[in-house]
Amino acid sequence: MLTVYCATTMYPELAASVQAALPNANVINVKVLERGIVAPENEDDFLENAEIVIGNNLVASNYLYKFKKLKWYHTHAAGIDPITNKINAELPLPPFTLTRRTAARNISAQYVITYILATERKVLHLAEAQIRKSWNWSTFDHSRPLESLTIGILGVGSIGTEVARLCKAFGMKTLGMVRDKDLLQNRSSYIDVYRTKEDMPDLLTNSDYLCCCLPSTSETKGLLSGDILSHCKDRGTVLINVGRGDLIDEDTLVKALTNNWLGGAVLDVVPKEPLSADSRLWTLPNMVITPHISGWSKDPKVRKAVVEEFVVNYNNFLAGKPMNYVVDWSRGY
Fold it and tell me: Which DSSP state fits 37?
């Protein structure tokens, strides 16, 4: 009988759900304190004996080089940069397999389509008008049907592909940026046109919406910083970022909005979280800020999806088959 250690505070019922799904496994619920610190009474056993762990990013990053027998760690987060950022370049790469969650793709993509619809149907403007008791039809003078719009998606992994699927359902044209041309062999029917990093100016020029789904890596940090967003000016592109905040720095965001390179921005992630109260981003026009919640829900169906994803990989692990959503330590995603 294999033992699975469950180390998280985000889903209190996760250990029980995993045990119910894997009755032949021994599931141990590890007590985790603030900031991903394992409780002293559990720490020795956890670090000495754990071979399989399902847990959060903080636990993995805190103990990255301290596990004695770990073979596989599954994080229930989609972004894994809190873990990969702890890699010590002077040491060998961690010897265990890291897999990540993709169960966030549905709600993350729904977040994106929510704000596209809200922008085009002027939902925030109408809410403000209601507060002022203003009955004003002119709000809708510039409302556009989605089938007339194009979205550029930076990063077409599980979340980006789901964003494309929803956008295609509304008749939008989809442009997808991938890391390199070698990845074009895995084409999705939901992406109309593929682009690489070298083609990004063209992608920006032709996108009404720009959705960022990229992870944080050495290649993506600062990708949209500088003047590259000036290519969006004629289109008045709206930026939606559900990836990582270090894709673009705060000064660039301010410049892009004040210079009207962007028609607006919806940020679920920012360069430094939590966003400080004195940040200029809070008061920029046409800016929406949410506290990194696009992929977060405690709904039982979401927890069920997390468990189901883990169980598939658990069975693959037992059978010696390749697991899904394995992180490439060297690439950082």
Answer: P
Residue type, 301: K
Long-range contacts, 201-206 (Cβ 8 Å, 24+): 201/228, 201/231, 203/152, 203/175, 203/177, 204/152, 204/228, 204/229, 204/231, 204/232, 204/235, 204/237, 205/231, 205/232, 205/234, 205/235, 206/150, 206/152, 206/175, 206/235
Residue with tokens 């996108």: 207
pLDDT tens sequence across 106-137: 999 999 999 999 999 999 999 999 999 999 88
Segment holding 38, helix H or strand E = none
Tell me the C-alpha distance between 313 and 323, whole Å.
5
Q: Measured in Å, how far apart are the chain's first and last C-alpha atoms?
A: 31
* CA nearest neighbour of 237 among 200, 211, 207: 207
pLDDT in tens, 47-72: 999 999 999 999 999 999 999 999 99
Q: Which positions are catalytic?
A: 244, 273, 292
